[in-house]
Amino acid sequence: LCPLSNSPAFLLLLSVLAAAPTGLGMEVMAPATISALNGSSVKLSCTFNSCYKVENKQFSLNWTYQECENCSEELFLQFRMKIMNKQLDRFGNRVEFTGNPTKYDVSFTLKNVQLEDEGTYNCYVLNPPDRHRGHASISLKVLTKEPPKHDSTVAVIVGASVGGFLGMVILVLMVVKCVRRKKQQRLNTDDQKTEEEGKTDGEGNPDEGTK
């Protein structure tokens, strides 16, 4: 099991497990760590689940960079009606948005990766009527040489099989979550209407008594 536990397929399986919906808030999913070879291009993948269709007028996205754990976050890519790149000196024009918000994908590609690009990349997503902003972080590691290759055929087969099953579980959980959320919103709306009608009746009774 040791080779399997170090394989990309097994790490992907753990990522799928970690991405399973656990609450009523919007889920944002990204790999915890990504490694890239110095001088190459790398895609920093970030996707999200939402019960609602993405509307450009309401949807918002922020990508920020942190050089260290206690460092302040630097905004370098933003979506407000359209994609806007904040040209940080460290990135220049090396950042390209390669996602599609309407397909719940907000990934970007970092070109010509440099050693100083190492750090934490934060993905923040808000898709109203979802009230809570989702967040995921990626730790980017920059390598100076290719890591040794391992035979992971068995791991890929196991990971694909189990991953497909977990994908179906996540889909079912998302459907259940969306149904519950929309039902709760309808109940809240009905309660608010009942309360307003009660206030109106209460205000009208004193007038009737004086007549």
UniProtKB/TrEMBL annotation:
Localisation per UniProt entry: Membrane
Segments crossing the lipid bilayer: 154-176
A Pfam family that the UniProt record links to this protein: V-set
InterPro entries named among the record's database cross-references: Ig-like_dom, Ig-like_dom_sf, Ig-like_fold, Ig_sub, Ig_V-set, Myelin_P0-rel
Topology within the bilayer: Single-pass type I membrane protein
Domain of life: Eukaryota
Keywords, in A-Z order: Disulfide bond, Glycoprotein, Immunoglobulin domain, Membrane, Signal, Transmembrane, Transmembrane helix
Location of region: Disordered: 184-211
Signal peptide segment: 1-25
PANTHER family in UniProt: MYELIN P0 RELATED, SODIUM CHANNEL SUBUNIT BETA-2
Protein name per the record: SCN2B protein
The gene coding this protein: Scn2b
